[in-house]
From TrEMBL:
Leader peptide range in chain numbering: 1-20
A single cellular component GO annotation: extracellular space
SMART domains, alphabetized: JHBP
Protein name per its UniProtKB record: Protein takeout
Amino acid sequence: GAMWTAQILAIVFVTTTSSALKLPSYIKACSRNDPQLNECVVKQGRAAIPKFIHGDPKYRVPNLDPLDIEELSVRQGTRQVGLNLVIRQCKLHGLSNAVFTAARMDLKKRHVEWDFINTKGLEILGKYNISGQVLILPITGSGDANITITGLTITYKYDFELVKKSDGKEYTNLTTSELLFDIGHAYFHLDNLFNGEKLLGDNMNIFLNENWKDLVQEFGPAVGSALGEVFRRLLTNIHGLVPYDVVYPPT
């Protein structure tokens, strides 16, 4: 099986907070007793995305488009046969194209699910280093990588608990979270494969794109875990600052 990891630099935890914050002005709270809570969350979420996508320091939200990712890596198979791919200093462009499509809010069971689609696509740019075998062919190289993903659908699920802090107010604490995603198509371009031997490099890029589905199975989980970590940290940061009764007031 593949070992994959993603490290994200951009989002820093700061746990010191002197007092509870209100919601940002661009997010309207949804009453937790609203019979149309799911619809309310989607409506308010859609309105908020363009407002915070480029960061909001007061709520510890970094710039998300482009999002800085320190490293995406895939290590697959044994030492004799396998693939080593690392992409460093990544910039992920296109999260602002995400459209919030549905929410399933079960606040009594403390379980939340959100769906997003990104029809315009995501672009990952970075410095790659690759060695080993991809499918059946030997591959080696380092240089600029471009991976473009279109037709992306995402479901983010999380469970939470309420924790009372020293100010006497209850705050949301994520206990588990999971990101599921599906890809319509992925396009790969790796510059400078095989030490810049153009013919070999061009043929390998054609091969990679003909076999994009197999590559996504290898590389997808690293991208998915990076996106999942973004969601988790954002929610943790905001929920750590804004009390539960402010996010989902009783009336």
